Amino acid sequence: MTGSWWKSAVVYQIYPRSFSDSDGDGVGDLRGIEERLDYLSALGVDVLWLSPVYPSPQDDAGYDISDYQDIDPVFGTLDDFDRLLSGVHARGMKLIMDLVVNHTSDEHPWFRAKRDWYWWRPARPGMTPGTPGAEPTNWRSFFSGPAWEYDEESGEYYLHLFSRKQPDLNWENPEVRQAIYAMMRWWLDRGVDGFRMDVINMISKDPALPDGPGGDGSAFYLCGPRIHEFLQEMHREVFAGRERELLTVGEMPGVTVDQAVLFTDPARGEVDMVFQFEHVNIDHGPSKWDIKPLDLVALKATMNRWQAGLASVGWNSLYWNNHDQPRVVSRYGDGSPLAAKALGTVLHLHRGTPYIYQGEELGMTNAPFETIADFRDIESINHYAEAGPSALPALRARGRDNARTPMQWDASPHAGFTTGTPWIAANPNHKEINAADAVSDPDSVFHHYRRLIDLRHTEPCVVHGDFTLLLPDDPSVYAFTRSYEGTELLVMANLSAEPAQAAIDPAWLDAELVLATLPDERSTTLRPWEARVYRR
């Protein structure tokens, strides 16, 4: 891999099922994405990341893959993919694929033909196979219930950290690794520009698979004993020696700053950056469904720790939203365009590579789900089955379907996403929040994001500058400076619904105002959800 072009890049995540439907079947597809490339080019993003488009039974929305080297017919064909990739490259953008190799679908041919490619174990000693409590270990699945599924045909259990239809691959088997590396090379040879690696820090497991406290086995599969060895091998086998500028980002639940330094140190040859979760775990308890109000002081402390920890070695990825997270403007904001702009400003001006999730640049909000029938996501449906109707408020606030409602293109029926019936309902507020209106309004969230992206592309201080947090204990104002080669930026945002006094050096008010979300008032008082960026 050459250079570090991705430090000044901005990545845009597309959830294909919900982005744009070209054929009216209610599901987004590759041709739909291709039709929207000029919109993405106008926004100014550098890289498109596609959530999985491979053949899949769709038990977990495509993250259960049955064939790694084809396209699911609901999304199109390999020819459609090649044409999309060509269109992306013609506009000077790059495309990265979602790499899901901790597990496959149980409908992947490997699962029946190559038993030793997965984790199989007999029942717990002294227990009758198939009965409650006979599972080989007490591990719990992320999607509720045990992490083991009984197979009557063999009389044994297989491990699935996620859905029972997502058996975990056994990376201890070198044949598994070589098959995956060959598949990755096949996509790179086809022209893709890298990979976002799904839960990649779970691929190395303690082969003993011991019981975990209270059913939590994470100590034995998060950043497991051979994780660095496996990622370094992957880098050697797949990426080393290629001349094209590639991007690798590893999704790593539970990763610490110290671990991330190792994963992203260029000298170690593992990944370019990681997705960490600390900043999106601030507003809940032990379970994501245990909701707490946002503590801005705690959020700033977490973000600051990651900025400091990766300041000299490694690199940050920056995100508020993705396909697994509720909409940030509803979560950390008040749902307004001003809140969307303020949150975007804060994120994009940290040190690291920003990721925009489809619709974030419009200020798309959480959806008004009324009953469990409105939900589609397996995680939410399984939680409701366990917890009952009392779970609905938490599902509305934190459910993954909030990110998966159709992209809001215009005010027409179904938000211009499809001429058919969408697989999940469009948010009714698409009549007020949509791309057609946003592109034509110079004061829209869209154009503010476009200006943020342009600032990253043109101001080296945004990419390379040091980060210094200001006002760490202020409960409303998020402020920091960036400095590089004699240039200094001040970023300050009021992330509250009340006016807030920013206790910054008033001399900054004489500096150049580079970006602002409200008409300029040379004052240290910030109006509700106001953000400003100064340069001197």
From TrEMBL:
<dbReference type="GO" id="GO:0009313">
    <property type="term" value="P:oligosaccharide catabolic process"/>
</dbReference>
<dbReference type="Pfam" id="PF00128">
    <property type="entry name" value="Alpha-amylase"/>
</dbReference>
<dbReference type="InterPro" id="IPR017853">
    <property type="entry name" value="GH"/>
</dbReference>
<dbReference type="GO" id="GO:0004556">
    <property type="term" value="F:alpha-amylase activity"/>
</dbReference>
<keyword id="KW-0326">Glycosidase</keyword>
<dbReference type="InterPro" id="IPR013780">
    <property type="entry name" value="Glyco_hydro_b"/>
</dbReference>
<keyword id="KW-0378">Hydrolase</keyword>
<dbReference type="InterPro" id="IPR006047">
    <property type="entry name" value="GH13_cat_dom"/>
</dbReference>
<protein>
    <submittedName>
        <fullName>Glucohydrolase</fullName>
    </submittedName>
</protein>
<dbReference type="InterPro" id="IPR045857">
    <property type="entry name" value="O16G_dom_2"/>
</dbReference>
<comment type="similarity">
    <text>Belongs to the glycosyl hydrolase 13 family.</text>
</comment>
<feature type="domain" description="Glycosyl hydrolase family 13 catalytic">
    <location>
        <begin position="13"/>
        <end position="404"/>
    </location>
</feature>
<dbReference type="InterPro" id="IPR032091">
    <property type="entry name" value="Malt_amylase-like_C"/>
</dbReference>
<dbReference type="Pfam" id="PF16657">
    <property type="entry name" value="Malt_amylase_C"/>
</dbReference>
